[in-house]
Task: structure prediction
Amino acid sequence: MTTRTLPAVPAPASISPELLKQHSLTAEEYARIEKALDRTPSLTELGIYSVMWSEHCSYKSSRVHLRRLPTRGERTTGPGSVVQGPGENAGIIDIGDGWACAFKIESHNHPSYIEPFQGATTGVGGILRDIFTMGARPLAVMDSLRFGPLSTEDGESDPALVRKNHQIVEGVVAGVAHYGNCFGVPNLGGETRFEPCYSGNPLVNAFALGLVKKDEIFYAKASGVGNPVIYVGAKTGRDGIHGATMASEEFKEGSEQKRPNVQVGDPFMEKLLLEACLEAMQTGAVVGIQDMGAAGLTCSTCEMGGRGGVGLDVELDKVPQRETGMSGYEIMLSESQERMLLVAEKGREDEVLRVFERWGLDGVIVGEVIAEPHMRIRQHGELIANIPNQSLTDDAPLYHRPVGTWKAPVPLDPPAEVVEALRQPRDYTADLKQLLASSNICSKRWVFEQYDSMVQTNTVQGPGGEAGVMRVKGSGTPGHERGLAMALDGNGRWCYLDPKQGAKLAVAEAARKVACTGAVPVAATNCLNFGNPEKPEIMAQLSAAIDGIAEACTALGTPITGGNVSLYNETKGEGIYPTPVIGVVGILEDASKSVPANFAHPGDVLLLIDGGEQLGCWKHFGTSEYARVVMDSMWGTPYPLDLEAEAELHRRLAALTNAGLVHAACDVSDGGLAVALAEACFAHGTGVDVHFSGYAGFPSYTRLFAEEPTRVVIACSREEVSRIQQIFSGSSPGVWPIGTVTNGSFRIRMDESKEIAPGEYTKAETATVIETTISELKAAWSGALQSALSVDTVTA
Amino acid sequence: MKFGVLVFPGSNCDHDTYNVIEQIAHQPVTMLWHETEDLEGCDAILVPGGFAYGDYLRTGAIAHFAPVMQSVKRFAASGGLVLGICNGFQILCESGLLPGALMRNAGLKYICKQVHLRTETADSPFTSTLTKGQVLEIPIGHMEGNYFCDESTLATLKRGDRIAFRYATASGEITADANPNGSLENIAGVLSEGRNVLGMMPHPDRSSELLLGSADGFPIFQSMIAALATR
Result:
C-alpha cells in the first residue's frame, strides 16, 4: 500500500455556522478541532469529529461523574473477580473453572421511538456484537423496556399518544423477538414498565451476556505495524448516517423525519458473523477486533488504533458497498449493521479470509496498521482524513456541566383526600386485584412468550421469575454445572422522587433478585437514561444517581464493569423520569440448586425475611404502586435502605441455598407483600394462608402493600424452619413465620391494634383482610396487558 | 450407530441437538454441513431448529435445495431414520419428505412456551418407548407452526396412523385452548408413509434434561436408538 504520493493534508471544507450546526458542533468545539489538526478540517473530518464527539460516543457530559463508580470489587482473583472493567466493548468477570463471562447493557431509545421495530432489532444486534467481539458466545439477553401508558385511564390523556404507545410496544417487542430468535440467543425477559413520561420517549435497554474461556478473550486493540486491517460482514450502505448524533439530541416536532437515520437489522447476517468471527478467532491469526456500531467505521478505526498506540490506514474504495456513488463522508459515518473490523497477523490473512468465505460473508483487506497514531482515510487516490486518534477519543471534550441543586418534586405528605380515603374501611381484596391488573405489576407473558427463552438448552430459570438462571455447559460436573443468574432493575419514579435513593434501591433490588435464586451477586452493569444534560437540574439527577449506584455497588460487592449513558431523553422539552437501569450478574456453584420464585408445595411454611424498619412510614408509602394505582397519587420519598442489612440478606440467602433448605424465594417489591405472595402462587395454582402479627400498630394497607426494600419471602418444609432461623440468628434481617402454602385458597389475616392516645394502643385483634382464591387473582393479573393492547385505538 | 446433525448457516438448535445425543444419550454424533452431499455413513439424520438461510422467504423453502438435502432425500427413500424438529419439520415439508405445510401461527406472533402433547401412536421408530395416549410436556418456539394439509391428505394420515403427536391439555384432552398455533386438528407432528421420517414442531432437544424443566422429550431419542439397535 503506498501513501507517499498523496498530499499530507485533506482538502479543507468551507466552514460556516450552518455547517457546524448541522453537525451539532459548537463554536468552541470547532476551535478545538482546528487546534487538534492545526488546520481547517475536510468535510469528512468534520463529520468524523461530530460523531466521535457526540454525547453518545464521547460521554462528554457524564465522563467526569462516571469516574466515581467502583470498577473493581474486593475479589481480586477467582470467581467473581473483574477481568475487564469499563473501556472495552464489554466488561468481563471470572466465573470459575477457566470460564469468564462478558456482559453489558446498552440503550437504543431514540431509534426505537422513530422506528420501533428496527430500532429495537438493532439495539439487540449492537449489544450482541459487543459481546462476541470479545470472543464470547452470547448465552442470554434481557431487556429493560419503558413505555407510555396504553390507555387514557392510565395517566396519558392524549389519545393520539396512546395510539402511538401501542405501536411502539408492538413494534419494540416484535423487534427484540425477531432479532434474538433468529440469532439464536435465549431472552430471559427483564422488566417492562409504563409511565406517562415515556410517552414519546420510550426506553429500550438491551442486556447481553456471553461466555468465553478466560484465556481466549479478544480485545479491540490494533497492533503490529504492517498487519492487515480486514473488514468483514455486511456491506456498507447509507443507513444510519449520523445515528449517534441523532441520539444526542432532544426530540422535536418532525423528529420522525429522521427515520432514515435508523439502521435496519439482519439477524441472519449477525448469526453468520458470530459463527465466522468465533471460528476466525480460533485460527490464532486475529490480533484485535471491534464491531462497527455507533459511528461505524469511524469509531472502530480510531478506537482500535487508539488503544494500541498505533494508527490505521484505510482505503475506502476497498470497503464493500451496498450502494454506488457513496462519498467518503457517507462511508465513514454509515451505521450499517452486522459489520466488524479486525486486524490479522501479516502473512496469515488468508486463514482468516477463508473462514469468512465459508460463511458466505465479505471479508476484505481494507488497510494496514501504521506506526503514526492517526486514522488515515483515503478514497479514489486522495487523502480525505488524517486525524490523531487521541483527539477523537481521550481528548474529546469533557464538560463539567453545571450541576443544579436537586429539589423534591412533590410534597412529603399525602393530599387530604388520600388521607381521608385511607381512613375509611377498605376492601383490600379489591385493592389487590386492582394492583395485580395494573400495568407495572400485571403478567408480562404477552411480551416474553414472543421471545425464544430456551434455545441453547441452558435455561434453568426463564422469564417470569425473579432472575434468569443459566447453566454453563462444560463447567462443574454433568447435571451440576455452574450457574449464572442475572436480573435488571430500575424504578424511574423513585429516582424522580430522589435520584440518589432511587438508584441505590435499583442496585439493591437487581442484586436481591439474583440473590433470591441462591446466586452470589458479583458484578453489575448500568444504563443511565436521563434528559438534557445542558439543564442543571438534569445534571443534578445524573450526578446524584451515580453517587447512589456507587454507594450501593460498593456495599453489595458488585462493581460496575461497563455500561452506557443515554442523555437527551426529552420530547418537546419534557424530560423522562431519570431512569438508571442496573443489571446484576451472580454466580451459582451448582445450577441445579437454583431456587425458583414460585410456591409449588402446599403445606410449606412461609417465612418473611425482613431487613426493613420503616414499614409503616406514611411519607414513603406515597412512592408505592398502591399510591399510584389505587390512590392515583404520589407523595413523599422512597424508602431508606440499610445496605449492611441488604448485603447480609444476600449472604444468608446463598447460605440457605447451599444447605438446600429453601423451596422458593421471592422478593417483596412492586405492590408489596400481598402482591409478592400472589405472584409466587400463580405458576402452580397454589395459595397462601398468612397470619401477619408483626407491626400491629401500623395500618393494614402499609403492611400489605408497602414496598420497603430488603424483604424476601421464602417457602420451606416445616422441618427446616428452625435450621433457617438458626442461619439468620444474630443477623439484622430477622425471620418471621407468617403462614403456609395452600392448595389455592388465598387468605391474609392481620393483627390490628388502634392507637387510642399517642403511643398507646388497644390490644391486637385478628382480622381477615384478604380472602379470595388464586384463580380469581390470576384472572386479574394474567390477561391485563393483552387486553390493554387489544383495545382498538384507531378510532379512539 | 451414528447420528448426523445437519448444519445450515442459520441453524441455531444444531448444538442443542448434538448435545443431547452426545452428552445425554452417549451416542456417536457428527455435524453435517449444508454444502456436503456426504452423510458420512450416519444411521440417523437430525434436522435441527433455527432459521436455515434466514427464512426471509417461506421457512425451509431455500433449504430444500441444499446439497445435503439431496442426500437426505435419498437416505429417507431407502428407509433411513430422519427426525425434523421445528425448522427441521418445515424443511422436511418443503422437501416433500412429509405432507402438508406449516403456516404462520394463528396469533401471528412467535410463541415460546411449554405445551402438552398427546402421543397418538407408539407404532414408529420415534415413539416406540412411549405409549399411545401418553402426555408429554415439551416446549415450542416458533412463528410458523400452524400445520395444514388438504382433506384427502388428512384422511390418508389418519388412515395410516401417521399423526404422531397432537397438542393437548395436561390431562390429554384435545381442545381448541390447548392448540397454541391454530394447527389443523391440533397436529404437532406427522410421520412419513414409511414411518421412518418424523417432523414435529415441539422441541424434544429442549426437554431431555430435568434441569431444564422437563425430560419428556428424551424418549423420542431413546426410541430412535432402540430402533437402530435392532436394525
The helical segments of chain B are 14-24, 67-77, 87-94, 151-159, 218-229.
